[in-house]
């Protein structure tokens, strides 16, 4: 069994469970037996490309969500890519949700390049286990685009197109293990627009009291908010 076959199988299983679909459900739609689909998910047999597209359609996801790119493979982005994102195909982010009083973790998968020098990106937000991060509360698809002093990420909620989110990351050209950004989106509980400070990292961070304290709105954040009359993260 190859690494790619195993990882694609894991993604099929994680997305299927996130969509609350059974093996029976998937079997009926794509015309494959339960045992065959089970072998796909366990990585015991590889999935042909036509079947992979059928599975993606059945689960109502982008086929790229089921593909596997080795994290940090070289040259995922061109030379002009800012230092923070150079050579990575996956990165992480965190913010603190005061409504539920908990840390929210996210995984960003960088996918294929578009003709406009953007990159497709999938974002998986609020999951329990990094080994099955596709099984999450919210999944977004969109694009990441780099400029000299700013990186923009535009996102659409995969399950609710009404929610358009965006992220701005300042000075991503500077070498650093982490970067601060501002996440703008739409909350459904309660229903309102939101903006939250978000910490980005090339590695999974230790989720301790220090990280949570960093993510909470500080006195200095409030000072800047009052000064500018707007939420700002630098």
Protein topology:
Layout: H1 3-18, H2 23-30, H3 34-42, H4 49-59, E1 90-97, E2 102-113, E3 119-127, E4 136-146, E5 150-157, E6 164-170, E7 178-188, E8 191-201, H5 209-215, H6 219-228
Antiparallel strand pairs: 1-2, 1-8, 2-3, 3-4, 4-5, 5-6, 6-7, 7-8
Helix pairs in contact: 1-3
Structure description:
By secondary structure, this protein is of the alpha+beta class. It contains six helices and eight strands. An eight-stranded antiparallel β-barrel has the order 1-2-3-4-5-6-7-8. Strand 6 (164-170) and strand 7 form a beta hairpin. The longest helix is centred in the N-terminal third of the chain and has 16 residues, at 3-18. It is globular, with a radius of gyration of 19 Å. 27% of the residues are buried. Mean pLDDT is 89; it is low at 72-79.
Précis, in short:
This protein is 26% helix and 33% strand. The chain has 234 residues and is an alpha+beta fold.
Number of strands: 8
In what range is the share of β-strand residues? Answer: 25-35%
Rg from Cα: 19 Å
What is the percent of helical residues? Answer: 25-40%
Give the integer mean of the pLDDT values.
89
The number of helical elements comes to 6
Q: Strand-and-helix sequence, N→C?
A: HHHHEEEEEEEEHH
From the structure above, extract its key features:
alpha+beta, 234 residues, eight-stranded antiparallel beta barrel
């Amino acid at each position: 069994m190859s690494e790619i076959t195993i990882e694609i199988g894991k993604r099929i299983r994680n997305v299927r469970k996130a969509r609350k679909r059974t093996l029976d459900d998937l079997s009926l739609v794509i015309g494959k037996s339960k045992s065959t689909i089970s072998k796909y998910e366990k990585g015991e047999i590889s999935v042909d490309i036509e079947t992979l597209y059928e599975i993606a359609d059945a689960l109502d996801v982008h086929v790229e969500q089921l593909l596997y790119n080795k994290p940090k493979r070289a040259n995922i982005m061109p030379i002009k890519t800012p230092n923070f994102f150079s050579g990575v195909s996956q990165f992480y982010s965190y913010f603190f949700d005061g409504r539920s009083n908990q840390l929210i973790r996210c995984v960003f998968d960088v996918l294929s390049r578009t003709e406009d020098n953007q990159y497709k990106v999938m974002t998986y937000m609020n999951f329990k286990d990094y080994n099955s991060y596709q099984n999450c509360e919210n999944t977004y698809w969109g694009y990441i685009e780099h400029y000299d002093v700013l990186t923009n990420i535009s996102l659409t909620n995969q399950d609710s197109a009404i929610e358009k989110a965006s992220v701005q990351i300042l000075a991503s050209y500077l070498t650093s293990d982490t970067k601060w950004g501002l996440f703008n989106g739409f909350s459904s509980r309660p229903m309102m627009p939101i903006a939250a400070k978000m910490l980005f990292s090339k590695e999974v961070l230790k989720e301790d009291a220090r990280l949570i304290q960093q993510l909470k709105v500080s006195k200095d954040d409030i000072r800047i908010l009052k000064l500018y009359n707007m939420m700002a993260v630098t």
